[in-house]
Amino acid sequence: MSILVTGATGTIGSLIIQGLADAGAGVKALVRQAGKREFPAGVTEVVADLTDVASMRAALSSVRTLFLLNAVTPDEVTQALIALNLAREAGIERIVYLSVIHADKFTNVPHFTGKHTVERMIKSHDIPATILRPAYFMQNDLMVQQTIQNYAVYPMPVGSAGVSMIDARDIADVAVAELLRRDRASSALDPVTLELIGPQPLTGASVAKIWSSALGREITYGGDDVTAFEEQLASYGPNWLAYDMSLMMAGIQTFGMQAAEGTAEQLQALIGHPLRTYEDFVRESVAGS
User: Fold this and answer.
1) Which of 18, 25, 83, 107 is the most exposed place for a label (fewest CB within 10 A)?
2) Residue 193, beta-bridge partner list
């Protein structure tokens, strides 16, 4: 029996596969096309599509534990519900699902509400699962690093309500810990929901200040204009996705992305090391550029 990881070729999935392999777990990596990337020794590549029921049935055979990650796509909910139903059909009782923080609060944001629908299914069917609800990924800002360095502007309209950004490596560390905890248990464990945050809330202005310090010159915050942000995204990607992201940014400006007091300490105890700071992320990014 093994742990099946979906989203295996993405940032989070790749980190989780490496962490599980390092821990000596039996791992299957779900991919849509064989041979597109190299996995750690001992990891088995499984070809399937989350919307292809037959291939998913085959992929879930001989699986004890499932990590479910669905990319932001128009059929994200369909993919997730099919996977969970087929997992139940296969008798899988150890599941970790990657959702998003405030999935129940950002009700007009398509991919947030989609993930909340999946959470509702998990809860209504008493599926033994850990629901992980991460805040904004620090690594999202790699997409705008050249803009920051070339134009001295931090362009992500995150506002001033406070966003406790989290490093993708810490998300993966929590996921690995929960997958191993469930996989190694003698029976199905109680459901758990964990909000995943970084060590401190950040604003557009404080993020710009951190980049200023790392680059040795002034970086300014580009402001809260989500319409301009949407137009920029739509110039090189699908307009439905650009609109979804602009709605998310508007929600971040209104509600922020923070968790209950003591959450950071709980996460650090779970993963056994301090949460990575945004300052650390920026220094590494600048050094690697």
Assistant:
1) 107
2) 131
**Cβ within 8 Å of residue 171, ≥6 positions away:** 12, 15, 98, 132, 134, 137, 196
Torsion angles phi and psi, residue 58, rounded to 5: -65, -40
Give me the residues paired with residue 46 across strands: 30
The pLDDT score that the predictor gives to residue 45 is 94
Burial of residue 142 (CB within 10 Å: 0-12, 13-18, 19+) is: middle
Q: Directed axis angle between helix 11-22 and helix 168-184, to 10°?
A: 50
Q: Taking the CA atoms of the chain, what radius of gyration do you get in angstroms?
A: 19
Token pair recorded at residue 75: 């059929």
Q: Are 180 and 67 in contact (CB under 8 A)?
A: no
Q: pTM to 2 decimals?
A: 0.96
Cα angle: 192, vertex 76, 4; to 5 degrees: 55
Alpha-carbon gap, residue 107 to 120, rounded angstroms: 14
Question: Any idea of the CA torsion for 77, 82, 87, 89, to the nearest 10 degrees?
Answer: 140
Partners of 65 in the β-ladder: 3
β strands within the chain, DSSP E:
2-5, 27-31, 44-47, 63-68, 95-98, 129-134, 153-154, 192-196, 220-221
The residue length of the chain stands at: 289
Using alpha carbons only, what angle is made at residue 245 by residues 239 and 250, rounded to the nearest 5 degrees?
125
Q: Which residues pair with 154 in a beta bridge?
A: 221
Residues 133-156: tens digit of each pLDDT: 999 999 999 999 999 999 999 999
CA–CA distance, 88 with 187 (Å, rounded to integer):
15
User: What pLDDT, on the 0 to 100 scale, is given for residue 142?
Assistant: 97
pLDDT, tens digit (0-9, with 9 covering 90-100), for 249-284? 999 999 999 999 999 999 999 999 999 999 999 999
Tell me the C-alpha distance between 153 and 140, whole Å. 16
